[in-house]
Amino acid sequence: MDGLDRRRLLGLLTGVGVAGVTGGLAACSSAGTPSERSGVSIGLLVPATGANKEVGADLELGFKLYLDLHDGKLGGRPVRIEVEDEGESTKSGAAALENLYKAQVLAVVGVANPDLLPFVRDRVEEAKVPLLAAHASPAEMPSAPYIWRTSYLTDEPALAIAHYLRRRLGNGSGRVSLITVPGTAGAELMLGFTSVYGSGAQDPITVKSGIKPTIGDYAQYAGEIANRNPRAIFCNLPSSHIVKFMDALSQAGLKPGSDVELYAPGAIAEGKALDELTDGARGLYTAMHYSADLNNLANHTFSSLFQSKFQRSPTAFAVAAYDAAAVLDQALTLAGDGTLSAPKVNTLLSNVGQVISPRGNWQFNQQRSPQQKWYLRKVEKDGPILSNVLISDLATLG
């Protein structure tokens, strides 16, 4: 995309105050002139290693893309980015956070591991540096004044699907089977679904720890679900397990798509996880707060630029980090030319209003989480490519 096309696209953006376009992501660290507001340092806490490294890459791309579109500035101030590898464990993530504090960042964006947030919650409050979590956050974690969420709470995919199925299946009377892997996130999803759907939600099945992604290993669970004769299934399984589970259901006489509809949290089919699913997952429905198919001006611009720069569709994780930058942009704009501190930025975040976003406009609720729309998507071919095809709105949560 040449400079003229980029400027034309950026001119379509509303509510983001784009002054111009830099030549690349390197502009994020450009120095300001004496006439400009003083620069700021922002920390990115994202995994470059471990199971979440693909999510970490999307978080970094989304944040830096916003800066690239705003001359490397937030609130008119040049930005220096400090990046630390979150790693795979809570211990490595906490150590990386300490490194960002030592660098005296004004705010921290990222966190791909949901378990890290409750682990560092007290430390964040002690440091008084706002943290904008741009991936799933534990639903049961108490809110904290210095922790903001720009993505979603772990139980919200289940809440969105439960609201939708309750409307479709006789006000919650239709039988729905639930299956999950062990863990806190899975438990929150199952509890969230049953709390909304009601008596038609059958007792959740928890698969054994360490189960392998084979049809044989899922035969027992598929047979048990087939005997329950549900009208729909809500499943929280690893992406690499989904197709084998669907095949096991077919062998048990319950063919997904024709005999029963299969629903799952959107993260199961997001980014690289969609490639893991393969064509065998076609027909799987997922709930997410973003779809690349959304028909709004902000998404048309964002999605076009993302695909042009990175040769793939954007993910909900990239959008959440992009929006974290937008939120900080608004907060620093409110600060004007005054002296900045991390606690002052945190106070200004409370005054940020509606965020004009590719996911649709949203705003923070009293728990510092997004009040936003959720969407139903279906894993299907979009031409030759497996995609999350937008089906409909699900619910507004938050």
UniProtKB/TrEMBL annotation:
Domain Leucine-binding protein: residue ranges: 40-383
Check the record and name the InterPro entries matching this protein: BCAA_transport (IPR051010), Leu-bd (IPR028081), Peripla_BP_I (IPR028082), TAT_signal (IPR006311)
Pfam families membership: Peripla_BP_6 (PF13458)
Write the record's keywords in alphabetical order, separated by commas.
Signal
Q: Which family does it belong to?
A: Belongs to the leucine-binding protein family.
Q: This chain belongs to which protein, by name? A: Leucine-binding protein domain-containing protein
Organism of provenance: Catellatospora chokoriensis
Lineage per the UniProt record: Bacteria, Bacillati, Actinomycetota, Actinomycetes, Micromonosporales
